[in-house]
Amino acid sequence: MKDQTKVAYTYLSVPLLLLGVFAAIPIVSLFYLGFTFYDGISAPKWAGLNNYIKIFLRDDTFHLALRNVFFYLILLYLPVVNLVAFSFALFLNSIIKGRNFLMTAFYVPVITAPIAMALLWTYLYNPQFGLFNALLMKLGLPPQPWLTEVSTAMPSIVLMEVWKYAGWYMIMWFAGLQGIPEHLYEAARIDGAGKLARLFYITLPSLRPITLFIIIMGVIGAFQTFGEIYVMTFGGPADATQVPAFQIYIQAFSNWKLGYAATQSIILFAIVFCISILNLKFGKGYYAE
Amino acid sequence: MRSNRQSSRIYKLLYVILGAFVSLIMIFPLFWMVLSSLKPSNELFLFPPMLFPQKWYLGHYIGSMTIANFSRFFLNSTFVTMVGTTLNLFFCSLAGYCFARLNFRGREILFYLVLATIMVPPQLIVVPRFIVTKIIPLMGGNNLLGQGGHGLLNSYGGLIIPGVVTGFGIFLLRQFFLTLPKDLEDAARIEGCREFGIYWWIILPLSKPGLIALAIFTFQGYWNAFLWPLVVVQSESLYTVQLGLAMFRQQYVTSWGYLLAATTLVTIPVLLVFVFLQRHFTRGIALTGLKG
Fold first, then answer.
1. pLDDT (tens digit per residue) in B23-57
2. Which of A239, A241, B103, B170 could form a disulfide with A233 if both were Cys (CB 3.0 to 4.6 A apart)?
3. Closest residue in chain B to residue A164, using alpha carbons only
4. For residue B283, which of B225, B230, B229, B207 has the smallest C-alpha distance?
5. Secondary structure of residue A17 in the 3-state scheme
6. Helix, strand or coil, per DSSP, at residue A37
7. Which phi and psi (to 5°) does residue A37 adopt?
8. What gap in Å lies between CA A93 and CA A227, rounded to an integer?
């Protein structure tokens, strides 16, 4: 085979340079930054393990933020959004007419700007003049404090996220369902398996590989929640909606503790990385290539 | 026992109702947004609210574009998005082509490194990326060592350039190029055509679906971006549309009218791009989603 090294690197030079400068170098330098005190203006000062001690032992807000992500986003949001998305994907899989339209309609919230939708939902959630409380009252139900109360703030965020991203998850499930060969169902039907049996013994097992992928992508996405918090609640009320990405932003660009923010990023990265490794390990045998 | 035809008709009806109901839930907030943006301010705070405006009112649209400077933000976002998406398509396809079709030393390792950059969530590298952008040599008043000035911070370059080359884009297009048949290229190569010529005249025209899918992703990425512009931009004259929206939500007073009108305007471009290119989009998603 012809060796095209010179040609390849000529054309790769600019793209790889840009990727290196703006992606690779930042990723690598995170590790160095985590060991420094750096306010963005004066030169970085060596901090040793100070940042790490702080993050493990003294940063209660960050721990709270992590708990918020685990309990609300991972244990509440992911199951709910996937249940909704999967049900609708099953539904779409069984119809043909109108499928494209419904799929598009379901997907529309996904492509809208997160900030724009967060602001819209702030309007909908307003306890005094928001649409949701109006609807609740019309149905004779008590109005809710939504974003203004500690107990309801995070669930309100979760609800908005479900609306916004159910379409994305649905597309994934739908693609998975489309990949299941029809003859499996035929054989089951001949053997006398009813609808529920077919669901549990054919559909769900066949979806195992994509299930793993969806869950992993979902968890990774959960840790990226930032914009919504910034415009809807800014971490409040009383830190009820603190999330790690928001904390990192505040530490870096409000408190100007860039070194510590880097430490937080590294810890977060470690968590996400472990999950990615899990994905690769268990998923290796499943992905069709 | 109902006859088969009757029960299937009932099912059909149920399906239609279910589909309509779900679509309604998904679309209704947006529908409400548009209608509310056309209501005069006093109607916005009515409780219980009316669905349609009593009096159709364009003042919020006019006001947000003029008083609130939103037209400037639109200009900024449009410029950044168009330039960024074009450059992204060019560089990612060039790199993707090299990885897909050229044979060179270090190809595998380099590609794995490219993939590695995708694994890190963007939120986490905002801090070092900010620093890198600040100390870019010979830009924004910096000397050769990157000291003294502010690099690409608070500039169009700072908004556009970091997103121009993404591991995701290179990956996506490389996978796509791998699916193209080699005959045309081989013929061109025998004829003596240079690699860039093959890339430009043969591969690109054949790659419309892949390029469109990437274009939609990148367009969305630039237009909807919030965290990075928030970090990079300090002057209001450089605000993108998303920063402008966040501006409407001050600590104590929210200009709901402007906010709703501006949000509607901001949502329209992405919606249009999506609706028109929707067919390629679901294919593009499946391509990337399932290939991990």
1. 888 989 998 888 888 888 888 887 777 788 888 88
2. A241
3. B26
4. B207
5. helix
6. strand
7. -100, 125
8. 33
- For residue A226, the SS3 value is coil
Contact A268, A250 (CB under 8 A): no
**Spatial distance between the Cα atoms of B37 and B143, rounded to a whole number of angstroms:** 49
Helix (H) or strand (E) holding B257: helix B256-276
How many residue pairs bridge chain A and chain B with CB atoms within 8 Å of each other? 270
Q: Which residues of B touch A272 (CB under 8 A)?
A: 119-121, 124
The single-letter code of the amino acid at A136 is L
Searching chain B, which residue's CA lies closest to the CA of residue A276? Answer: B119
The tokens describing A159, both together, are 């609800």
Which residues, 6+ apart, have CB-to-CB distance to A154 below 8 Å? A68, A72, A240, A241
The predicted pLDDT at position A217 comes to 80
Give contacts of B104 with chain A, Cβ < 8 Å. 3-5, 7-9
Count Cα neighbours of B130 within 13 Å in the Cβ-side half-sphere. 27
Give the Cα separation of A209 and B270 in Å (integer): 32
Angle at Cα B59 formed by Cα B53 and Cα B62, nearest 5°? 135
- In the numeric block, the tokens 């109607």 are attached to B43
Euclidean distance between CA atoms A103 and A227, whole angstroms: 26
Q: Look over chain A and give the mean of its residue pLDDT values, rounded to a whole number.
A: 86
- Cβ of B15 within 8 Å of Cβ of A249? The answer is no
Tokens of A4: 């095209």
Residue A172 contacts residue A210 (beta carbons within 8 Å): yes
List residues bridging with B254 in a β-sheet.
B249
Q: Does A30 sit within 8 Å of B124, measured CB to CB?
A: yes
> Which span out of A78-82, A195-199, A284-288, B260-264 was modeled with the highest average pLDDT?
A78-82
Measured between beta carbons, the chain A residues lying within 8 angstroms of B129 are 22, 26
Distance CA B74, CA B273 (A): 16
Whole-number pLDDT of residue B81 = 95
Nearest CA in chain B to A85: B22
Q: Which residue has the higher pLDDT, B42 or B240?
A: B240
**B111 vs B89, B196, B287, CA distance in Å?**
18, 20, 18
- B118-129: per-residue pLDDT in tens? 877 788 888 889
Cβ-Cβ contacts under 8 Å, B110 against chain A: 12, 16
Q: B42: nearest CA in chain A? A: A129
Q: How confident is the model at residue B291 (pLDDT cuts 50, 70, 90)?
A: very low
Q: What is the mean pLDDT of residues A249-266?
A: 90
Q: What is the pLDDT of residues B212-233, one digit of tens each?
A: 888 888 998 999 999 999 999 9
